[in-house]
Design a protein that fits this description.
transmembrane helix, mainly alpha
């Protein structure tokens, strides 16, 4: 009898928690190595039965999660840092569980697909908000390497999310998302503000665009939904440029 998928997910999350703790506390393990371990653990948890076209959404997303954590947790100290390490481990487990549901949904129709997509969307907002905030707070938005890596991470997350929703319109929408997200990141670089305001503006608009694209792919984009997204974007913009 094989190891159940959920147990494999737990093993992967616990292994990650141990490795990221060693990395943050001692620096003895490279974050890239942790990313590889988590990718292999994720593939193992899914039974190594992913198709080539499924590698982007289901293996890149955990890698993005892992690679962002040193930036988010690294600058913390004391008890807060230990709590953050535990939360990141639990977060990875929930993240992988969400991806597992979406992986099953590629084979058969299941009622949990929509809640799982919503969870993945919210995960992205929270992850990239804290990632941006810590990045701006400690390195500033003028660090071109950090800026480029952040933008690439956002693009890969967006590509993966759009592909999971619909692989048929993936190419066109991914190109559009690449262009718009780059414009947003560059705009923030030219008009700097407080780290909190910059993070809210950038992540808010990026995920507003992603949400509109999701509804468009699902053929559920109505005028009322568009107004809600645009209204949220206007509020974020007013707060950013006036506060």
């Amino acid at each position: 009898m094989g190891i159940p998928n959920r147990v494999r997910l737990v093993i992967t999350a616990v292994t990650y928690t141990i490795l990221i703790s060693i990395h943050v506390l001692t620096g003895n393990i490279d974050a890239f190595i942790i990313g590889i371990v988590v990718v292999i653990g994720t593939a193992w948890s899914f039974g190594f039965d992913l198709k080539v076209k499924e590698i982007l959404p289901f293996l890149f997303l955990p890698a993005i999660y892992v690679m962002s954590m040193p930036v988010i947790i690294g600058g913390l100290e004391g008890l807060v840092q230990y709590v953050a390490l535990v939360i990141s481990g639990a977060g990875l487990y929930v993240f992988l569980l969400t991806l597992n549901i979406l992986n099953v949904a590629t084979i058969k129709r299941i009622p949990l697909k929509k809640p799982a997509l919503s969870a993945l969307y919210l995960f992205g907002i929270v992850l990239f908000f804290f990632y941006a905030y810590r990045l701006v707070l400690h390195e500033g938005w003028g660090n071109q390497t950090s800026l480029l890596w952040y933008w690439l991470s956002v693009c890969l997350y967006g590509f993966s999310y759009l592909y999971i929703i619909s692989s048929r319109v993936f190419q066109l929408e991914s190109l559009l998302f690449t262009f718009i997200s780059a414009e947003i990141v560059i705009l923030v670089a030219f008009f700097p503000a407080m780290p909190l305001n910059m993070s809210i503006f950038m992540v808010g608009w990026i995920f507003i665009i992603l949400g509109i694209m999701q509804h468009n792919s699902e053929k559920t984009l109505t005028r009322s939904i568009t107004r809600e997204y645009v209204s949220a974007g206007l509020i974020i913009s007013i707060m950013y440029f006036l506060l």
